[in-house]
Amino acid sequence: MTRSSHTLILFAVLLATGAAAFGLERFPPPQFETDYVRPTTTVPNPPQGFWEYIDAGVLIVTLFLATYLILRKRSRRWIFALMLFSLVYFGFFRKGCVCSVGAVQNVTLTAFDSTYAVPIAVLMFFALPLVFTLFFGRVFCGAVCPLGAIQDAVLIHPVRVPRWLESGLRLIAYLYLGAGVLFAAMGAMFIICRYDPFVGFFRFGGNWNILVLGGCLLLIGVFVGRPYCRFLCPYGVILRQLSRLSRWRVTITPTDCIQCRLCEDACPFGAIRKPTEPWPAKEYRVAKARLAFFLVLLPVLIGAGGWAGYELRGWLAQIHPQVRLAQRIYLEENAQVEGTTDASDAFRATGRPSPELYSEATLLRDRFGIGGVLFGAFVGLVIGGKLLSLSVKRRRTDYEADRASCLACGRCYEYCPKEHERWKNRKERLGRS
Amino acid sequence: MNQPQGKTDSGVVIGALIGTAVLVAIGALLLVDSTGRGGSGLSDAYELDAVKMARFDPNLIACHEVEPAIATGFARSRALTLDGEGRLYIAGDKAVHVLSAEGTLERVIAVSGEPRCVAVSSEGRIYVGLRNRVEVFDAAGERLAAWEPLGDRSFLSSILVAGDSVFVADAGNAVVQRYDKTGKAINRIGEKDPTRDIPGFLVPSPYFDLALAPDGLLRVVSPGRTRVEAYTFDGDLEFAWGENSIRIHGFCGCCNPVNIAMLPDGRYVTAEKGLIRVKIYDADGTFQSVVAGPDQLVEGGAARVFENAEDAEASGFDVAVDAAGRIFVLDTIENKVRVFVENQKGRSE
Fold first, then answer.
1. Are B317 and B297 a contacting pair, CB within 8 Å?
2. Which CATH number is associated with domain B58-348?
3. What chain B residue is nearest to A189 in terms of C-alpha separation?
């Protein structure tokens, strides 16, 4: 070994000795001993587990009951009573959670994050209404969903929303579903729960802005039937599509439509479709050409949406708290902002190097790029699909409840003279027996 | 087409209502703090407001400061005591400064390490506590003895001479060691002993003070219990007083008071760190008055102490009392001694 090596080692030893001396000057570990006896740490089972299964049981019962009342008994009064029960139980008693609408995000997250396991009860809340809708139409919306119930309860003076406006506003729900799935998949936020407008009422407290939002929706709901369900509900988007395929569903008349037109204005949700006239030949040709144009436009819209989604990846990624933290740390490290935040202080306290955080944020941003493409493409598909649907005329010979839009509230039953006839016959049968 | 007037009016009203509700809803939605930048949203009740906590009724201040303050001459002052003639003995850096009652530097006594505490006997001997050992000097500053060092865990924080005994408060071991004047250990005071109903001292920070009361009992602070305990020289616990409270009548935080001194009439002067305040308690331990609060003792008041960790650590002000009842506060941040006189006494003087 050289003389310089020896000098270096000696210097290092002296330095270490000095450090030890400095360490000795420090006060011994502090005492915080008191008379308090710390209890043994125990990890009890999550208390929610029991109630979640009770909830799932109540959900099954209410879904069956709703199906019976809507399709078999056809009684608006009983449907309303069940709806109130659901509002009280799932809403005020269980504080709006678990909720099928929000469960979409749990299921999405479990699909994208292997470390997250969705509870069986939550899975049931997600799947059961879908299964029932597939067989019986939107019976869940009609009498089980507390979000729908609270709106239905305030519907006092319904006004008609023009079809064009209704179709346009409904696109918001598709966007909301897409955003909810995207942010849940990325592990960024459960946006549908965060912006649930009615949960604050169920819990008698919450974020003021959301309470105001909920209050406004209820005020609108006095005149416009169930605005959240029709124009915003992301779960409703899925239910709409499944309801189109449903084997059994709400029919205005219990037998044959006599085209009396009494039910024409019965639905406060604009879900009753009139019989259609055959298209004039000239109009048909125009519609055909328009349909061909929209079919060509569809992939363009999907592509444009995907491109826009990719370009917006940076903006979308900012929803993720980890990306926001990385941005904050970067700004602080480069003296572009003054002071620190609780989050940046907490990050520094972990001792993790900031480049590690930056790489994580970059990875997330890249993932948001892929997610943004899919989200944008979905939006393009929805817009293109809507344009296509406007170019297709479905033939109807009777007054019918729209398969997708009908919320199975049962209001239209009593408008049908055939229904009254059925009641009368039933009463007579009961009288005879 | 003519429409009934009433229908038109209601349509307008409903439209206006819906339009307003839509606008308000959009506004509320846009203003949602989804990133948490707006803070917790909790009320002020959950805020750690040091300034608010430091506030107390100014009418409780029963002392006034005698200007000017006395400079210690140290970069880091640590402890203060007085002898029977009113001379000040201030420990700091690596020395003890002896100042006249008027504040003139009379002598500098060099110490082999950083002194943590200092006491003077009636014969004029100066006992200096270093980290884990005691050195004894004569009045001229000549070193007479260096006692056997205590263990590595020891951290001496206060020293007191009473009669033939020297009491050393060892914060590291949370015990008071009694010696004779030659440095021979006699007994230990305050060790946890359930058979004698002694709970043991709790010393979470390097502040652990003691004083001798006119009743002949030792007063030892158990800062972790925020109380003062009275012991006989043999180590029997006689009584204790003190309450943990952020309010002015109690001792705040994890470990206070940091230092105490006894007034000639048996009342206590206490000094707290963190939220720096010097107060007077009567002989029973009942809060009596304030000597000075954070605003009087620290530039910037409470806010400065709370926001600056170094200041908070160095804010263990020492207190001493002379035979006339004047209160000497060693400001360990500004390195000066401030003198306070009770208002009644001030007026009578």
1. yes
2. 2.120.10.30
3. B34
